[in-house]
Every structure is written in C-alpha cells, then in structure tokens.
C-alpha cells in the first residue's frame, strides 16, 4: 500500500493591503470592533484591473509548490482545485490551471466545499495516491472574495472578514508508511446549507434572466449571507469533534499535536480550540490577522507560512481542521 506525502507547498497573496481603517471609510465599522470580534487587522484584496483572478493566483501558488517538490509540471497526474469563487460559472478553474501550466491532458477536479475545500481536496488526492492510481497530485485552494462583497454597512457582518489569496500543495506517492497523510475525515450537514451561503445566481433560486428582469438594487441575494453567531457556535463544536476523530483514529491524544493549522475563520474560534486541547501558542498557527478569512486558501497559505518559518519539522504530527459553509467540516492528520 502506498502513502501520500506533501512534498511541496506554495502560496500567493495580492500586494494590495486593505486595513480595517480603510473599510471604515466604506461602511460603518471600526478597527476596534473588527479586531475584537475576529482578530483581523488587515486583508489582501486584488486591485481592480489587476491580472489576478482565482485561477491566476492558484497558478502562482502552484508554481512555487511544484518547484519546491522538485518535480516537473509534466509529473503531475491530477489537478484538484478548491474554491467558492471561480473565474467562470463553468468550467471550473482546474482546467484553467491545466492550460496555464501547459500540463498535457491530465484530469482536473473542481471542489465546491468552501472553507473545508482544501481538506476535501487533500482527501481526494490522498485516495488517488493510496490506491496507486497517481503519483503526484496538485491541490490548490484559491479565492477572490473582494469582488463579490457588499461593501455598504448592510454587508459589514460579512465583508470585513474575507480576504483574497491562494495556496497549493503537491501530494506525492511514498512507500514509507510512517510518514505522510495518516488519515482524513470529512463531514457535512446540509440542513444548514443556507446559514452561510450565496444563493444567486443559482438554477434553484434566481438565474441571470431573473436578476436582469428585476434589476433590483436592494436585492441581497448576490451577496454572501451568514448567520454569524449560529455558524460560530457550530464551528467550535465541529472543529473539536473532527480533530478528536482524527487523533483517535490514529490512536493519538491531543498531547501528540505538534502543530495545529485551523482554517482561519475567526481568531476567537482558534483560541477556543487551543484552550480546549491545552495547546501552547507555538502549537497553533494563526495568520488571520494579516489575511482575514480566505476560505479554501486559508489552510494551504497558513501551512506554507508555518513551514517556511521553520515551525514544522520532520517527524511532527500536524493537524489540519476546517469548518464552513454547507455546513462542511473536516480534518487531516499528517506525520511530517
Ligand atoms: O469561515 C467559515 C466559518 N465562518 C465562521 O466561523 C464565522 C463565524 N462567525 C463569526 O466569526 C462572528 O459571528 C462574526 C465575526 C461574523 C460576527 O461577530 P459577532 O460577535 O457574532 O457579532 P454579531 O453578528 O452578533 O453582531 C454584534 C453587533 C451587531 O450590532 P447590534 O445588533 O448589537 O447593535 C452588529 O450589527 O455588531 C454589529 N456589527 C458590526 N459592527 C461594526 C456586525 N458587523 C459589524 C462590523 N463593524 N463589521
């Protein structure tokens, strides 16, 4: 039986820094509220007119990961792209990456699991490698939120949270079963699909013809909607559960965690988990202060930064965990 191992990591964020004070010029908000409720100080938003799109940023992150993995682009057997903000409604960005990287005719899968997208993508890649079907899989999480947020006071409960960016990993086959992805755990609860959602345009709600016909400037359905407190309460429960599930599957306890990389949803959520599992500041990586919540990109960006800063060492037990829209949630337990 083969195992899969992360052999390369990369990330890319746009240069344009948007501070909380910048947002307070657009809507009724302030730095103190945002920092106290979320931990966010600033985020990156693509500049209007920039060349960066979700797929372009994904390609930039992927190029770094490919180089660090020491492989050629033509060694990639499959592309897995997680995003909630694709360049086009269809096709998904996986094929755009395939074109941009000029990788023959490999398969490209698009993952639609929002904040849990990278873990879902990692899990898909892991299965293909463990069964022996593929040797190298490129997994990307990339998002552009800034183009689709309600930047008026009406949207402040959502729009101050989200940022743009991309992260990527190369997952490669290894025959060393003591290292790599030990297990992944995926869950969802569709009952709460509309608690954090963007419902239009959608074939089940309002498609483009309806929107054009109504031409209603007060229509909020093309902005993300979030029942913040309800999402928060579910997040802390599900994060804890899915981390424990992963640890128990591998006969480990919370004391085995060397590095926890939580999806960067809210610093208060990460702090709750840290306290619950009695982890030190060095055992939990947070960068939401700089980037906000970048949904599918948040874990690969954080994982790359933690690795670049020397905070992940060979032999470490690394835990990834995410929760978000769907609801969907998941974890991955990795022996580095
Ligand atoms: O990544 C996917 C998973 N996402 C999450 O896990 C996010 C979970 N939820 C959260 O992080 C938090 O619920 C938020 C950060 C979104 C909101 O924080 P909160 O402490 O739950 O605030 P709230 O929504 O209960 O709002 C409290 C007050 C309200 O005013 P009133 O009704 O008390 O007068 C809001 O109108 O804060 C007001 N408010 C704001 N004030 C200044 C909401 N947004 C803002 C804002 N600036 N940006």
UniProtKB/TrEMBL annotation:
Q: Which GO terms describe its cellular component?
A: cytoplasm
Q: Name one GO biological process term.
A: fatty acid biosynthetic process
Pathway of this protein? Answer: Lipid metabolism; fatty acid biosynthesis
Task: Tell me, in one coarse class, where this protein mainly resides.
Answer: cytoplasm
- The residues annotated as the active site are 115, 263, 293
| UniProt-annotated location(s) | Cytoplasm
Sorted alphabetically, the keyword list is: Acyltransferase, Cytoplasm, Fatty acid biosynthesis, Fatty acid metabolism, Lipid biosynthesis, Lipid metabolism, Multifunctional enzyme, Transferase
The UniProt record lists the Beta-ketoacyl-[acyl-carrier-protein] synthase III C-terminal domain at 247-336
Stretch forming the signal peptide:
none
Give the family this protein belongs to, as stated in its UniProt record: Belongs to the thiolase-like superfamily. FabH family.
Binding partners and assembly? Homodimer.
The domain section of the record reads:
The last Arg residue of the ACP-binding site is essential for the weak association between ACP/AcpP and FabH.
Kindly give the PANTHER family that the UniProt entry links to this protein: 3-OXOACYL-[ACYL-CARRIER-PROTEIN] SYNTHASE 3 (PTHR34069), BETA-KETOACYL-[ACYL-CARRIER-PROTEIN] SYNTHASE III (PTHR34069:SF2)
Q: Which NCBIfam families match?
A: fabH, PRK09352.1
The name on file for this protein is Beta-ketoacyl-[acyl-carrier-protein] synthase III
